[in-house]
Amino acid sequence: MTEIPDRLVEIMKRSSKIAALTGAGISAESGIPTFRGAGGLWEGYPVEKVATVEGFYENPELVWKFYNERRINISKARPNRAHKALAEMEKMYDMWVITQNIDGLHTMAGSNNVIELHGNIWRVRCTYCDYHGENMEVPLREIPPKCPKCGEILRPDVVWFGEPVHMMDLAFKIAEESEVFFVIGTSAKVHPAASLPFIAKNNGATVVEINIERTDVSIIADFILLGRATMILDSLLQKLKEA
Ligand code: OAD
Ligand code: ZN
Q: I need a surface site. Which of 22, 105, 155, 197 has the fewest CB within 10 A?
């Protein structure tokens, strides 16, 4: 079991601006598969077919079937102790969560300052008109679902490869201003999200990585806490409360 270094607790005690970049690993213990690695979500589904605009227009049914399955799985998932620990930390710090996840679990856990870089699986938008909305139907009655305004097909309001991520300017600003920057459960392979820890580091932040294995971020991390996100964030929160 990884011990939380006292030095990290000391640094956090005198910091006020904290941010956490999270990825699929933080939701793994809620039963949502990660993307890369054994049993990963992309396994069996060619990424270019289900996570690009081109793939969507080529076969909207296939893409919506894939998202329908993910929606069914995510609808059963609940925030775990890692999501909840970050929500608790928001009460102690000027804190932001910047997530690559589309499952909405940070908000469900009680975090208010959340940037969903890759969108949200419960949101949809029209491929033709300006309609944006929420669609919580599980499973979907109609595949592909149609726009209530114009009748054209809807798409998931998530970010696919090649598309611009949401709220990146704010995310850059947060990374620049953070005193402690956590990188939790992400392989840090997908940019621009993966560049945020480097920006934070260049601007003087203490970078703390929490993952079950080392990643490309490890070389710049001031602390590498190897282990499951729930265990580590639980212990960290405990130590912060005691300190
Ligand atoms: P990945 O699947 O690439 O990485 C998940 C990371 O979580 C890995 O580094 C694992 O070691 C780690 N991990 C797994 N279980 C963990 C646990 N219990 N505690 C801590 N860490 C754990 O997922 P992301 O980095 O989120 O984008 O992937 C980034 C983006 O690539 C996704 O948002 C998605 C994908 O393609 C789009 O769809 C645009
Ligand atoms: Zn429409």
A: 155
CA gap 20, 69 in Å, rounded: 28
CATH fold of 6-242: Rossmann fold (3.40.50)
Ligand that comes closest to the CA of residue 146: 2
For the chain, domain boundaries: 6-242
pTM for the full model? 0.96
Q: Do 96 and 19 touch, CB atoms closer than 8 A?
A: yes
List CB contacts of 116: < 8 A, sequence separation 6 or more: 99, 101, 102, 104, 166, 167
Q: If you take atom 22 of ligand 1, which residue's CA is the nearest one?
A: 25
CB 102 within 8 A of CB 119: yes
Average pLDDT in the 219-243 region?
A: 97
Joined together, the tokens standing for residue 168 give: 């990146």
In sequence order, what are the beta bridge partners of 20? Answer: 97, 182
Q: What is the pLDDT of residues 133-143, one digit of tens each?
A: 999 999 999 99
Token pair of 214, please? 């080392």
